């Protein structure tokens, strides 16, 4: 009996497989890179900031700090696909926001992302979610060590809806600033907004306990460095994914990102050594972060020499505001910004936005945005082109964008905090502030043995305790105290 498999298999396959597994418009290289870049951005938050936050705080706040980041990551994704993505990138409702809508159907997710991108819309939604999530988690760095976790659970979806989506739509979507502001990958939309909102929320939530403000050492510097490493390497996707294609701008953006970051770290370290006569690992991580933030709004639009200069400025100006101005200013002292997010993100973000308006190269702007690009040129290049007016105008536009993002976040974040405070306390109870993780979550970061219990003797210790006295003396083993706690 002859058997022709195609007669039986083909009709079945035709009924279950799509007729077109990869449409003509789908560029597989762009698609693969975008999924990789989005995953790298996601890894910056989980596990990057989860580890960084859980390690940079006092031991009693390790679980709570990491949990705030983990919760926000999950909550943002659900809110993003249910309504927030379309508010940030959908059909215009107002000059600063789109219409809320689902981003869940195959009609949306499997369609071409836009006329300029050759990949599915699902890539765009996923990548922009990762951006939104890390913005909220960066904001949390200002609130660690005292915010009521249940208040945080309410705050996250509200801030995403009424603050982040407005900034994203206004500058990146179809808003009134979209055609005039240079913000390559989020210096304003992500970093300025998280820094300003975090500082504002810290004001409304109130300070940590006085003991924590005076003594707040990291509980694990080695783990902190691991989280920082995820953040740095993940920025390859953060800035490398912004063009939504594999091209020369992508490569330049990645190169500039790491060059600026390394420069900023070294400058911060040098200042610490000159002023405090010691190199600080924690300080170096702060310098790393300010470099990453500063280059973000212009990563693919400036030459490498400009990236080095931006790194030098991002390693020095935020250092001054954090290490000198913050300690002298009654205004900064009155607000308890736990991890200094205002300095590392707001100051570095606005610095990068202004410097992007200075160093944005006309050729690179045309490559990314097309020959009819509405931006720039940067002030530096406009001087040599004999058209200083265009460069000055771009700087004014950058300042306008920074002003809008700042004012919107101050007002909206304040209103959200006031509203949440009418539902529940923004700040933990004093007795919970004294205990920390165990009181809030019933968990501790490092549990060698339970609170109030006697330490259980290990098998090694039990065996050692049976050695005769003469042997114990010979090997200089001290007597065992079985009541050690």
Automatic annotation (TrEMBL):
Transmembrane segments: 32-54, 61-83, 124-144, 151-172, 184-206, 218-237, 249-269, 338-360, 395-420
Domain Ammonium transporter AmtB-like: 32-446
Compartments where located: Cell membrane
Signal peptide segment: none
GO cellular component: plasma membrane
Keywords: Ammonia transport, Cell membrane, Glycoprotein, Membrane, Transmembrane, Transmembrane helix, Transport
Gene Ontology biological process terms in this record: response to symbiotic fungus
Gene Ontology molecular function terms on file: ammonium channel activity
NCBIfam families: amt (TIGR00836)
Family the entry assigns: Belongs to the ammonia transporter channel (TC 1.A.11.2) family.
Protein name per UniProt: Ammonium transporter
Species in which this protein is naturally found: Cicer arietinum (Chickpea)
Gene: LOC101511074
